[in-house]
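[stage:ingest] chain + small molecule (S-adenosyl-L-homocysteine)
[stage:ingest] validated
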Amino acid sequence: MTPEELTQYITEIGEKPFRAKQIFSWLHERQVSSYDEMTNVPKRLRERLASVQPLHALLPVRTLESGRGDTKKFLFRLFDGNVIESVWMKHNHGNSVCISSQVGCNMGCRFCASTLDGCVRNLTPYEMLCQVYAIAALTGERVSNIDVMGSGEPLDNYDNLLRFLRLVSAEEGMNLSLRNVTVSTCGLVPKIRELADEHLQITLAISLHASNDEKRRELMPVAKRWTISELLGACRYYFDQTGRRISFEYALIAGENDTDRCAEELAGLLHGMNCHVNLIPVNPIRERSYRRSGRGAVLEFDKKLENYGINVTIRREMGADIDGACGQLRRNYLTRSD
Ligand code: SAH
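[stage:predict] done
[stage:export] tokens:
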């Protein structure tokens, strides 16, 4: 519940409105994981809340730390036994947490481990928040940025995503600026337009991964529904409505989407757009035969885009040694033989 909803609820059950403030602050500012810790809230009210809406803490079941110590990947168990993964990354400018938005994913991108068994269920706004809270508690570090870029398609869980964004930026809670939040989508066009109309200051990242419709349809089933031109139309609308520069994600797959011709085509698509391209050598997954582009091909692709005047960076790879890519840790946990 937002602070306003909680106040309304608390008043409806005959309590004083200031109790709502206390409870919200315990949940989202001090980030406790049980009602018992809310020591200034009367016991009878705590018991009542616990019976109406139990608080389910996330249980860490596995933690992997990268060799350099700047990335940690957490596997959490939810109250219903499902597991999800979240990643903590230490940067010069602060720490970011990459969270999952669904258990699994329905989008079917060919190179992605998260989608191999489809989507089990949506995560609630509180389950999205708890990934951040749990990681802040486990690492003892402040979280300055959140990427909704883990398993799941956030725009396929749209209402919960919006509620999550409201909660995370609530002054009475974590009070994080939405400028420090990135939401990544494979490109659900009508939802991008809907999100644009919310006029939020989040960064929108688009998983593009191909420079023409034919290749994109091969790699990403969502491209059968909307063309690149329709997708870019929605991106332009997003920029017009929010003034926020779009980020495009492009996973380089050897021989698939990394040729000179692809770079040229991509530059043509993005020409004149206020955007940024992130190149990521694909993380190969066991179930598919895709290979990552070699270092030379990655540098070449990057240079080519730059020469065409496109804003581009090669994503610094963190955590490739700890199943860092989307869905890999969960997948390996679920299919383990031990
Ligand atoms: N569904 C959303 C967010 C989750 S995936 C989306 O599609 O954007 C987060 C990012 O990781 C996406 O850009 C996705 O395409 C990329 N990704 C997934 N598997 C990958 C892999 N094996 N190697 C590199 N990038 C991958």
